[in-house]
Design brief:
This protein is α/β, with parallel strands linked by helices. It is built from 27 helices and 32 strands. Among the domains are: about 300 residues, Dimethylsulfoxide Reductase, domain 2 (3-Layer(aba) Sandwich); about 150 residues, Beta Barrel (Barwin-like endoglucanases). Helix 2 crosses helix 18, helix 8 packs across helix 12 and helix 20 packs across helix 21. The structure holds ligand MGD (2 copies), iron/sulfur cluster and molybdenum atom (MO). Keywords: 4Fe-4S, Iron, Iron-sulfur, Metal-binding, Molybdenum, Oxidoreductase, Signal.
Length: about 900
């Protein structure tokens, strides 16, 4: 029997944003007030890239609501001792008691000063899930904005282990926080460990399935055969962490064997290739305007790059005069010196990296590497065009994608640079069919990549680099991970702290580096939708450190390993219970490219469970109790909940002196959203969105490709030559050395104009040998990790139905090892083994498979829970306890990779 739900509906529209591959729209069927079924939203089939469907994870949301292990009332800890072995002895308390306790802490901090004696914020906050928490935390950002400065730099799994290098370099070169193929038009994809069939969500899977239907050829280069490898045209089992060599060899073939077939017009007009490089490695510049010079083949002289009607030389060496501007005030005046185009420098630089050389490094046949380079070039169709929204654009249907491990730690810079160069050489960057960007996060405005395009003095995209000059360098870090001090590229946006070397914040708690401020603990730490005690590196150490924090407030859905150390647990309303309006459409990661943009509402589909509260209610209550109501309301009016409530076209602003209930706040946001979408004409509020679920307007496809805007604004891509990074690196080095700091010297070496190849495997091995005094040959295996389609990190591990579905995929069950190698070692499928890294050891069941290199082992996902109900009984190990946090394994961008060296030993027979 079907009855009406509390909102008078039996089918209620809402969204899922449980993973970064969303958001996706869905309907929830409600019977007798009980949510019973997740359904696709086929009403949105024509306007969502996933055709109105959701992935398997969304179907777990029903069990999430009714999970018997949920925390349903606020709790406080009664055991003052914290630690894994301590029972927190949580007892239920009222919301009043919980919120007053937090407000008391905040008010004390406000009175004492927001910054502690070491110069760090007393309040810290960590959020997880690659930024998806924002789509569930209602108006909490508005409350947090009243407490600033806040330390958001305690690593939470996302950031430094995630798509890190790509975030920074992608934004630098093409406003691409995440990079994707233009899958609907692409014909040839080389994927270096990008596991799109598991990690791309319903939209990624749909786009790639359609592409296969069209005949796309995808080459999956990775040490273990993932779902993506299995669904690709070809699997190339490369040695872990040798991807840069493979990519350099591809570039070598293009430059040294096929140069005439490259897109020379794109290189000349849309990149810094023709810029002239002077003897000290900086551009030759015009003494008056200081503009970089190019050699004009028409007038046979050096002219500023932006001179009209010129034909800049792409290749060659010239004898010319000009000035060179180096780091700080370094300046050279040159008369008749030899200068070379940046492109010529590149040709020279890539000379040694032949396929034969790479074959030895990567353990991949050189014929395969050369064939892939040629296939890439053939498919690039250099010279072809296509019309998009009435504009003729180049059509270059080839792309290179990078997975999260390829993206991180040493080699990340090389991979990102090489991937972007592979696009640039054939004119396939930011054009139809090619390698394109999705979101922008570090540059402003974050709402539209096209709007963030700004011309720099040198003719490239202007980038908000953190200053490294003497006057402006942030010598004393403002947060514990020192992101703006150590990583100029991280910028200074709302996301920058989470993208700094976030392990530094944890590591220093144990022992800080030389000449560095004394590490302090945050007086108050907020945690939501992240579980660093399971998701980060060296989880044993992280757990111990978390236990030393004096006052931790965790929003809690169930008990978990991080909130085991909390002082207060606050039960929020989960995905199907809370109210929130978010922006959807446009271009978002991972492959959410829409032809529409607009808003979607998340709404309660059923009565909330227990005494859980809406995040917006919690935020308003906290603001009130912390005497911050007025600032909080002002933040909401400015748009802290997603939409500015007042512009020159409309005014739905809230009275800042009054407390507003949850529905009033979202009604104002809904009205502002309607007005924004209709240019101020319409103003439908919450009721409209509750009924329809979403509202869209067009998003022109031309905006998927930055090149149109770049052409219009006369902006070039800053490739191949990294003159800016080189200067920034020298300056940063001087600043650090002036303070006596030498522990960042290896990172400084990465600031090269053309990244030099390194032996990345040896770098890893050396770091482990040095730091642990081991002989690395005792640890013969590389241990890697891989995504599961069913799980969103550790976020849905406590859902029974998800566990059931995932059991159909055997690699969830334990340590995946090559069958032949196992036999040689006298091991078989199902054996119990101990897995030991130089840092620590863990145990698991052996799963033997042909689809993995003999020198590689794989542990899927991030399990190893010991407090999370249900998941704590999985008995599946994770690599996270085995991977150390080391400065030696941190690259200049501040990231490291989910990678370990291990040995294994049998400890029990297969049953
Ligand atoms: N071994 C291994 N480790 C990894 C990775 C890997 O591939 N392998 N990947 C890394 C990457 S790329 C990332 S981005 C990070 C992600 O790591 P984290 O961001 O730390 O994410 P989770 O581990 O999913 O933690 C989410 C927590 O939120 C809780 N939660 C879920 N829903 C709700 C809710 O509605 N309300 C509340 N209050 N809490 C909720 C869950 O119970 C869980 O404890 O992990 C990293 N760690
Ligand atoms: N279902 C689901 N989707 C997700 C997430 C989730 O938790 N669940 N998380 C989201 C987030 S935050 C992220 S960061 C993305 C991550 O998305 P992906 O980058 O696609 O993630 P992984 O599957 O962890 O890693 C990809 C592959 O890298 C390979 N690999 C490991 N080491 C190397 C190496 O040295 N070289 C090469 N070539 N390959 C290597 C592994 O075999 C693995 O299959 O997924 C997002 N999407
Ligand atoms: S892909 Fe991610 S956001 Fe989309 S339905 Fe699945 S879990 Fe939800
Ligand atoms: Mo991630």
């Amino acid at each position: 029997m079907t009855q009406e739900s509390p909102t008078g509906k039996t089918k209620i529209p809402t969204y899922c944003y449980q993973c970064v591959a969303g958001p996706d729209l869905l309907n929830v069927r409600v019977e007798d007030g009980i949510a019973t079924e997740i359904q696709p939203n086929f009403g949105a089939a024509d306007c969502t890239p996933a055709g109105g469907k959701v992935c398997v994870k969304a179907f777990g949301l029903i069990q999430k609501v009714y999970n018997p292990h949920r925390i349903l009332t606020p709790m406080k800890r009664t055991n003052p001792k914290k630690g894994r072995e301590e029972d927190p002895k949580f007892v239920p308390i009222s919301w009043d008691e919980a919120l007053d306790a937090i407000a008391e802490k905040v008010n004390k901090i406000q009175a004492e000063g927001k910054i502690d004696a070491a110069g760090y914020p007393r309040v810290a906050a960590s959020f997880g899930g690659g930024g998806t928490s924002t789509y569930y935390m209602g108006t909490f950002p508005a409350f947090l904005s009243t407490l600033t400065p806040i330390d958001m730099g305690f690593g939470s799994g996302q950031g430094v282990k995630c798509y890190h290098s790509e975030h920074l370099y992608g934004e630098l070169w093409h406003r691409a926080f995440i990079v994707a193929p233009d899958t609907p038009k692409c014909e040839y994809i080389i994927s270096f460990g990008m596991n799109i069939e598991a990690s791309g969500g319903v939209c990624g899977v749909r786009r790639h399935a359609d592409a296969r239907d069209r005949g796309v050829k995808r080459i999956q280069v990775e040490p273990h055969l993932s779902q993506t490898g299995a669904a690709s045209s070809e699997w190339v089992p490369i040695k872990p962490k040798t991807d840069p060599a493979f990519m350099y060899a591809l570039i070598h073939v293009l430059l040294h064997e096929q140069r005439d077939r490259l897109d020379k017009v794109f290189l000349r007009d849309r990149t810094g290739s023709p810029y002239l490089v002077a003897p000290n490695g900086y551009y030759l510049r015009d003494p008056e305007t200081k503009k970089p010079l190019v050699y004009d083949l028409k007038t046979k002289q050096a002219v500023p790059f932006d001179t009209a009607n010129i034909e800049p030389a792409l290749e060659g060496q010239f004898v010319l005069s000009g000035i060179e501007l180096g780091a700080d005030d370094d300046r050279w005046e040159h008369q008749d010196i030899k200068v070379t185009t940046a492109f010529e420098k590149l040709i020279e630089h890539m000379k040694p990296f032949t396929p034969l050389w790479a074959a030895r490094v990567c353990d991949v046949d050189n014929k395969i590497i050369r064939r892939i380079a040629l296939e890439y070039l053939d498919h690039a169709k250099v010279g072809e065009t296509i019309e998009v929204d009435g504009r003729t654009m180049p059509l270059r249907p080839v792309a290179v994608t990078l997975g999260k491990t390829v993206n991180n730690g040493w080699g990340g810079y090389h991979c990102c640079w090489a991937r972007t160069m592979l696009a640039v050489l054939v004119g396939a960057l930011e054009v139809p069919g090619g390698t394109i960007g999705t979101t922008v996060r570090i540059n402003r405005p974050a709402s539209d990549r096209n709007d963030s395009v700004k011309l720099s003095e040198d003719g490239f995209l202007a980038y908000p680099m953190n200053p490294t000059d003497k006057e402006n360098w942030l010598a004393t870090p403002d947060v514990r991970n020192a992101n703006r001090t150590l990583v100029p590229l991280v910028g200074n946006s709302a996301w920058s702290q989470a993208l700094g070397p976030t392990h530094l914040a944890w590591m220093q708690q144990d022992k800080g580096p030389d000449h560095w401020p004394q590490a302090t603990k945050p007086d108050l730490w907020f945690v939501y939708r992240t579980n660093p005690a399971v998701s980060f590196w060296d989880t044993n150490q992280i757990t111990k450190t978390i236990a030393t924090f004096p006052f931790t407030v965790c929003f809690a859905y169930t008990r978990d390993e991080t909130n085991h150390m909390a002082d207060i647990l606050l039960p929020d309303r989960t995905d199907l219970e809370g109210l929130q309006l978010i922006r959807i459409g446009g271009t978002k990661f991972i492959e959410q490219f829409w032809d529409h943009q607009g808003f979607a509402l998340r709404q309660p589909v059923t009565e909330p469970q227990g005494d859980t509260r809406d995040f917006t209610w919690i935020s308003t209550e906290l603001a009130k109790r912390c005497n911050m109501l007025e600032q909080y309301n002002k933040a909401l009016n400015r748009g802290a909940a997603g939409v500015a409530l007042k512009t020159d076209k409309y005014d739905f602003s809230l009275d800042v002196t009054q407390e507003h209930d949850v529905e009033t706040i979202w009604d104002a946001n809904c009205k502002a959203a309607s007005a924004e979408i209709t240019g101020g004409k319409e103003q439908q509020g919450l009721d409209y969105y509750k009924e329809k679920g979403y509202r869209l307007t067009d998003f022109p496809r031309i905006k998927w490709y930055l090149t149109a805007k770049m052409e219009d604004e006369g902006v070039r891509y800053e490739l191949p030559y990294q003159e800016t990074l080189k200067r920034v690196g020298v300056q940063l080095g001087r600043r650090l050395h002036e303070k006596g700091i030498s522990w960042w010297d290896e990172q400084l070496e990465e600031y090269e104009a053309l990244p030099d190849m390194m032996d990345f495997q040896a770098l890893w091995e050396g770091a482990l040998e040095r730091n642990f005094g081991v002989d690395i040959s005792d640890y013969p295996f590389w241990l890697v990790t891989s995504r599961s389609m069913q799980y969103a990190w550790g976020g849905n591990v406590s859902i029974q139905m998800i566990r059931e579905v995932s059991k159909n995929i055997g690699t969830h069950g334990g340590l995946v090892m090559n069958t032949g190698r196992a036999h040689k070692m006298g091991l078989k499928d199902g054996d119990r083994v101990e897995i030991t890294s130089p840092l620590s050891a863990t145990r698991g069941i052996l799963v033997t498979r042909e689809g993995i290199r003999p020198d590689t082992l794989m542990l899927m996902g991030q399990f190893d829970h010991w407090a999370t109900p249900f998941a704590k009984d999985f008995n599946v190990p994770s690599m996270n306890a085995l991977v150390p946090m080391l400065l030696d394994l941190t690259d200049s961008s501040g990231s490291g990779a989910d990678l370990a060296r291990v040995k294994i030993k049998k400890i029990g027979e297969a049953k």
